[in-house]
Amino acid sequence: MQDIELILINITGSDRPGVTSALTEILARHEAQILDIGQADIHHSLSLGILFRTTPERSGDIMKDLLFKCYELSVKIRFSPISIEDYEAWVARQGKNRWIITILGRQLTARHIALVTEEIARQSLNIDSIQRLTGRMPLRAGEEPRSKSCVEFSVRGNPLDVNEMRSVFLRLSQEESFDISLQEDNVFRRCRRLICFDMDSTLIETEVIDELADRAGVGAEVRAITESAMRGEIDFCESFKRRVALLKGLDESVMKDIAESLPVTEGVERMMQVLKRTGYKTAILSGGFTYFGNYLKQKFGFDYVYANELEILDGKLTGRYVGDIVDGKRKAELLRIIAQVENIDIAQTIAVGDGANDLPMLSTAGLGIAFHAKPKVKATARQSISSIGLDGVLYFLGFKDSFISDSPSVDRD
């Protein structure tokens, strides 16, 4: 193999149309073989790398033509010879695992990135690429209450201790108030097809049963039971029965009033528009009530709703329920059933929730995300979002903003 030369060229300068075309045309004319190519554009500044193979007889003419063309295009070029041994070692590394590390928050700082990349290096992983998934940020973005910033790292290798790495990321997210996701970049990550949501305190910023309790004059009693259940201190089914019993005698018309004023979580509308446009099946699996789940289904276009049915007689709540209680175990079962009906592998499913009764669903799904969750849930779930709205889920799936606007278009990596 001594009759070949491997040359890496790095081109930098102001970005302009036609640079890549002009340089690859020269390589094509000299019958060079491109072995690797990558390009980035940061604030109109081009960084282009091309690794190519040629022969000693042709390399001189190629470099001369490239040099003249770069002078003509007002960009700089640097040539680096690559040994065959280095190239073969690089090829051998392509069999290593690839991981996706996503960091997001209202505003990401240099400190956030430094802390994450320090752990990446400590785990002996190599960064292959870095890309910003959110749109270009205005200078005052951090002052906007609903601003968001997201950066995705693609890294290669086998972590020294993946569980320790997750623990470090969890600690950093808690101490520094931003979110970190670590996912293996396998085939399932890029072909998720079903996403199931809890409703109360996930799709909406309230617990509906608390709203009903306020109207029934038993708000304090019900909230105390709700909080204890969400912390995992008492059995969900028992807490559900006790809370529903306290609603006895409430007028049915109250449910309509509450539904029409539900505080929808930030990002739900944008998230659902993207998920529907890209063919995802969506479901609400809730320990709340079907009346409110169906209201959200009609408003945002969810495909499935499974929740609890309140018994109503003569226009009044009886303090009882109809059918089986949708608790944590039932949510996980429903996720599996919907996946089977839709012919979707369980590894292609996603679950999002905030309470202790969501943990079975989160652990069953291929990707479980704790959303603004209680401490116990966040510590147990492998992924979590606590810093921004529910559309942050899109970034964990690899979507990116094309640009910032009132209705941003969204691309997939």
Summed up:
It contains 15 helices and 17 strands.
Structural summary, described in words:
This protein is α/β, with parallel strands linked by helices and 413 residues long. 38% of the residues lie in helices and 28% in strands. The protein is built from 15 helices and 17 strands. The strands form four sheets. It has a seven-stranded mixed beta sheet. Strand 14 (367-371), helix 14 and strand 15 form a beta-alpha-beta unit. Helix 6 runs antiparallel to helix 7. The protein starts with a strand and ends with a strand.
List keywords for this structure.
413 residues, alpha/beta, seven-stranded mixed beta sheet, four-stranded antiparallel beta sheet
Classification by helices and strands: alpha/beta
Q: What percentage of the residues does DSSP assign to strands (E)?
A: 25-35%
Query: Radius of gyration, rounded?
Result: 27 Å
Shape: elongated
Q: Which spans have pLDDT < 50 for at least 5 consecutive residues?
A: 403-410
- Report the sheet with the most strands, covering strand number, pairing sense and barrel closure: 7 strands, mixed
Count of strand segments: 17
Q: State mean pLDDT (0 to 100 scale).
A: 91
Considering DSSP H and I runs of 4 or more, what fraction of the residues is helical?
25-40%
